[in-house]
Specification:
Elements: E1 2-9, E2 18-26, E3 31-35, H1 40-43, H2 45-55, E4 64-70, H3 82-92, E5 104-106, E6 109-110, E7 116-117, H4 123-131, E8 135-139, H5 143-146, E9 154-157, H6 160-167, H7 197-209, E10 213-216, H8 223-228, H9 239-251, E11 266-267, H10 275-279, E12 280-281, E13 286-287, H11 289-292, E14 297-300, H12 308-312, H13 315-320, E15 322-326, E16 331-335, E17 339-344, H14 363-370, H15 375-379, E18 383-386, H16 401-418, H17 427-433, H18 438-451, H19 455-471, H20 479-487
Parallel strand pairs: 3-4, 5-8, 8-9, 10-17, 10-18, 11-14, 14-17
Antiparallel strand pairs: 1-2, 2-4, 6-7, 12-13, 15-16
Helix pairs in contact: 2-3, 7-16, 19-20
Family: Belongs to the Mg-chelatase subunits D/I family. ComM subfamily.
GO molecular function: ATP binding; DNA binding
Protein name: YifB family Mg chelatase-like AAA ATPase
Length: about 500
């Protein structure tokens, strides 16, 4: 008879709660039972564990084996508990020294010959193990993810026998090799965009203040070209940002390139994507496009062609930076702090207002087309910019991304000293850092009245003005900053004159 406890980690959204694998060998007919809300793959682990122990040369105990996965009310899924269950059986039967197990955690799927197969979503477990100062043993095939967290004590193994030998002091496990992040040299460069000076300026403001951007123009004017250049002018990700984004990719089963893990992602779902594809979901909640774009850019081309219901679910994560998915058995939360860049045509045919006069849409058709996007969603997009058709003759190459990025980084550093990027300034922050003179306040009030802007739009104008001031390295907001910010809020309308 014997009792052993092994530490492991479950997966719930981006969290990795601790699971204690308790193994008891007691009197009774030989059998193997698992309790603690195991789903099918976990219940099947008893057969994999038996075969792996036999083929690895270990003695299978001839007792009644009971495995408890605690906490019992937390659903357990996947084959990640194979390795800790096997080690628990071996420790309870005296084949593994149990004295030092309290400082270890284990994840891994067992093959029938005892070799270890990779598990999905191990990066959140690495971060949690680092937080409680425990060593974590992973399959060697998860080395790429393990190499991302340089200060975590992670060990790699190819076979169950290697882990047992290390725990018994008869061998050592390998450590993952840290990988230096690669330079962002292959990002698309803004110099390839000819002309479109107002749109380029809006893209720089978008990057400097982490604002959302809407590009409106006929087909082929460079909207997608502009949007795809945004990651190249954004500041580099901090380690915490990059690890959180990599954790989402790990849970989604996406391949991680260790040398590229700090590169901001650019996600561009098709307009036929469902709500679940965009925000995540399923009976076992998985991250959607908005979470896969965490820390990067979410580009929605042909915005009115998306289902209105699909677009409306963006409103909460755009404000909070997180999305909660609730199902009958589980509730999962995923990060979704992305920058939204959307593009649309001005009318169904795409040529409203074009100097060629080839638009064939009636005013009613144009109105219905634009009404596919709700006012509350448009209100949450800071910058509305027209991208008109233009001649490509006579345009020199534009300013390269590296030069623009330097200004963006300088503006972000000013914001970091204030405690938050401008797009996420709260009311107190706006009051403190976006103060206006009486003359400027009156000007903004008239503009909001004439353009019929909401209180939310009023605050977003002030945030944009603050970003413009940061790009100019100015502590105070000037009338030029306020006027330009108002001009980005609505197309085909002008702020009041007289100032």
């Amino acid at each position: 008879m014997g009792l052993a406890t092994i530490f492991s980690r479950a997966q719930v959204g981006i969290d990795a709660p601790q699971v204690m694998v308790e193994v008891h060998l007691g009197p009774g007919l030989p059998g193997f039972g698992i309790v603690g809300l195991p789903e099918t793959a976990v219940r099947e682990s008893k057969d994999r564990v038996r075969a792996a122990m036999d083929n690895a040369g270990f003695r299978r105990p001839q007792w009644k084996t009971t495995v408890s996965l605690a906490p019992a009310d937390l659903p357990k899924e996947g084959a990640r508990f194979d390795l800790p269950i096997a080690l628990g059986v071996l420790a309870a039967s005296g084949q593994v020294q149990a004295e030092n197990l309290q400082r270890w955690e284990f994840l891994g799927e067992l093959a029938l010959d005892g070799s270890l197969r990779p598990v999905r979503g191990c990066l959140p477990a690495i971060l949690k193990a680092r937080g409680v100062k425990r060593c974590l043993v992973l399959p060697a095939a998860n080395a790429e993810e393990a190499s991302l967290v340089s200060d975590a004590e992670v060990y790699l193994a190819d076979h169950l026998a290697e882990v047992v030998a290390a725990l018994n002091g008869e061998g050592e496990l390998l450590r993952p090799q840290p990988v230096e992040p690669a330079a962002d040299g292959d990002l698309l460069d803004l110099s390839e965009v000819l002309g479109q000076h107002r749109a380029r300026r809006a893209l720089e403001i978008c990057a400097a203040g982490s604002h959302n951007l809407l590009l409106i123009g006929p087909p082929g004017t460079g909207k997608t070209l502009l949007a795809s250049r945004l990651p190249g002018i954004l500041p580099p990700m901090s380690e915490d940002e990059a690890l959180e984004a990599a954790a989402v990719a790990s849970i989604a089963g996406m391949g991680l390139e260790p040398a590229r893990w700090r590169t901001r992602r650019f996600r561009s779902p098709h307009h036929t994507a469902s709500g679940i594809a965009l925000v995540g979901g399923g009976s076992k909640p998985r991250p959607g496009e908005i979470s896969l774009a965490h820390g990067g850019v979410l580009f929605l081309d042909e915005l009115p062609e998306f289902s209105r219901h699909v677009l409306e679910v963006l409103r909460e994560p755009m404000e909070s930076g997180r999305i909660t998915i609730s199902r009958a058995a589980v509730q999962a939360e995923f990060p979704s702090r992305f920058q939204l860049v959307a593009a649309m045509n001005p009318c169904p045919c795409g040529y409203a207002g074009d100097p060629s006069g080839r638009c064939t849409c009636t005013p009613d058709q144009t109105r219905r087309y634009r009404d596919r996007i709700s006012g509350p969603l448009l209100d949450r997009i800071d910058l509305h910019v027209e991208v008109p058709r233009q001649s490509l003759n006579g345009h020199a190459p534009g300013e390269p991304s590296a030069a623009v990025r330097e200004r963006v980084i300088a503006a972000r550093e000013r914001q970091a000293r204030r405690g938050a990027v401008n797009a996420r300034l709260d009311v107190a922050g706006i009051r403190t850092h976006c103060s206006l003179s009486p003359r400027m306040a009156d000007f903004l009030e008239q503009a909001c009245e004439r353009l019929q802007l909401s209180a939310r739009a009023h605050h977003r104008i002030l945030r944009i003005a603050r970003t413009l001031a940061d790009l100019d390295q100015s502590e105070a907001l000037e009338m030029t900053h306020l006027s330009e910010a108002i001009g980005y809020r609505q197309l085909d309308r002008q702020p009041p004159s007289g100032y």
